[in-house]
Design goal:
Layout: H1 2-25, E1 27-33, E2 38-44, E3 49-54, E4 58-66, E5 69-81, H2 90-100, E6 107-118, E7 121-130, E8 133-146, E9 149-159, E10 169-170, E11 175-176, E12 180-191
Antiparallel strand pairs: 1-4, 1-12, 2-3, 2-12, 4-5, 5-6, 6-7, 7-8, 8-9, 9-12, 10-11
C-alpha cells in the first residue's frame, strides 16, 4: 500500500516538472514587422543604376523561441503595396509601376516555406510574388537579435523576366532597363502586442 502511495506522488511530481520545464523550452510567439523595416529593389539601365525603396511593408510570423532565444520560424509572410516602392524620380517610378502592372497586381509579397541554420547565419526558402507571378527563392539571411526584436537582413538576385516582366524602356527605347535585379531587405520583427 505504501509503495502505491509513493508511486502516485512520484508520478505527480514528474508531471509537474514536465509541465513547468516544457513550457520554458519552446514556445511559438507571434511577431509583427516594425515600421522601420526596409525593402529595396535595385537594378540598372543603359543610362544609370537605380534603387526603389519601401518602408511600408507589413508582415507577421509565428517564431519559435526558447526563452528569449530565436530557434526557428513556423510561418512568415511579408507584403507591401508595389506603389510604395520609390526611386526619387517620378518617371522611373511611373515606368516601374506600368511594368509591374500595379493597377492589376497591387502587392509584392514573400511567403517563407523553410529556414535552416543557427546563430546569425540562416538559409531561407520561400515564394516571391511580383506582378502577379509567384516564383521560388532561396537566399542567405543574417539574424541579429536585440532584446526581443529580431532583425533579418539578406538579398536575392533574380531577373525581371522570371516574373514575366518586360524590362521597361524610356526615351523612345534608347534607355533600356537591365533584366537583372536584386531584392534586398532589412526587416525588424517585434513581438505582437
Amino acid at each position: 500500500m505504501n509503495m502505491k502511495h509513493n508511486g502516485y506522488w512520484i508520478f505527480r511530481i514528474m508531471v509537474l516538472v514536465l509541465i513547468f520545464t516544457g513550457s520554458q523550452l519552446l514556445a511559438q510567439t507571434k511577431y509583427t514587422l516594425a515600421p522601420s523595416s526596409e525593402m529595396k529593389i535595385s537594378g540598372g539601365s543603359t543610362l544609370h543604376d537605380w534603387d526603389m525603396t519601401s518602408n511600408a511593408a507589413k508582415g507577421e510570423g509565428m517564431f519559435v523561441m526558447e526563452g528569449n532565444q530565436f530557434k526557428g520560424i513556423k510561418s512568415l509572410k511579408v507584403q507591401m503595396e508595389a506603389e510604395t516602392l520609390k526611386s526619387g524620380t517620378r518617371g522611373l517610378d511611373s515606368n516601374a509601376y506600368k511594368a509591374l502592372d500595379t493597377k492589376k497586381n497591387k502587392d509584392v509579397s514573400f511567403t517563407l516555406k523553410e529556414i535552416t541554420g543557427s546563430g546569425s547565419s540562416y538559409q531561407a526558402k520561400g515564394d516571391f510574388t511580383i506582378a502577379g507571378v509567384t516564383k521560388p527563392a532561396s537566399f542567405p539571411v543574417k539574424l541579429t537579435q536585440s532584446g526581443s526584436n529580431l532583425t533579418f537582413e539578406g538579398s536575392f538576385d533574380t531577373k525581371l523576366t522570371n516574373f514575366s516582366i518586360d524590362p521597361p524602356t524610356a526615351l523612345l527605347g534608347t534607355v533600356k532597363t537591365h533584366d537583372d535585379i536584386k531584392i534586398s531587405f532589412k526587416t525588424i520583427f517585434q513581438p505582437s502586442k
